[in-house]
Amino acid sequence: MPESRRLFFALSLPTALQKQVIRWRADNFEPEDGRPVAAANLHLTLAFLGDVSDQKAGVLREIATRIQSPAFSLRLDDLGHWPRPGVVWLGTRRAPLALLQLASLLRSHAARNGCHQSTLPFHPHVSLLRGATRPVALPAATPQWQLDATDFSLYESRFHQGRTRYQCLQSWPLLAAPPLPG
Ligand code: 2AM
């Protein structure tokens, strides 16, 4: 049997933002609302690949190396709850075109390489709580954080000793905006 690993492309959150998010989460949710996602695991998935052989992962890494997509910033100014699958998430009211295009590109390459892609529309989000299947009182005030995406990464999801850990395998830069003339 060839080796396979559970992989996904995602945007990471800088450590400072991770800290702000978990502090705010601790102040605004109750333990019974759901299981907090560990700070280091906070991310925004671009394309979920599923269990992928090392050979296929190599092909997708090659493709990622050739991607030339612009850097972008997004406001994390939206908050929601999906009782199924039980996720409280942080999202954005206005997704930048560059984010949507990058996710779409990665998803179409994934599909072309045999990684099943959900038919649900892409809804960019950072999962904050899992196992949140019961009603949750969301805080009235939505935070207004900014995420500056200057690169995207391939992550491996590992389950070890009862914990899920996402390990960054490789990152690729997004293209910096050219300086304004004058
Ligand atoms: P979620 O945060 O909404 O649960 C790693 O599992 C990441 O891939 C998670 O962020 C998860 O999204 C996302 N993902 C997307 N589709 C998935 C699927 N079919 N199974 C597991 N994770 C999926």
From TrEMBL:
It holds the Pfam family 2_5_RNA_ligase2. The keyword Ligase applies. Gene3D superfamilies: Cyclic phosphodiesterase (3.90.1140.10). It catalyses: a 3'-end 2',3'-cyclophospho-ribonucleotide-RNA + H2O = a 3'-end 2'-phospho-ribonucleotide-RNA + H(+). SUPFAM superfamilies: LigT-like. It comes from the Bacteria. The active site is at H43, H125. Its EC number is 3.1.4.58. GO terms for molecular function: ligase activity. A motif (HXTX 1) lies at residues 43-46. Keywords: Hydrolase, Ligase. Hydrolyzes RNA 2',3'-cyclic phosphodiester to an RNA 2'-phosphomonoester. Belongs to the 2H phosphoesterase superfamily. ThpR family. HAMAP family: RNA_CPDase. NCBIfam families: 2_5_ligase (TIGR02258), PRK15124.1 (NF011704). This is RNA 2',3'-cyclic phosphodiesterase. The lineage of its organism: Bacteria, Pseudomonadati, Pseudomonadota, Gammaproteobacteria, Enterobacterales.
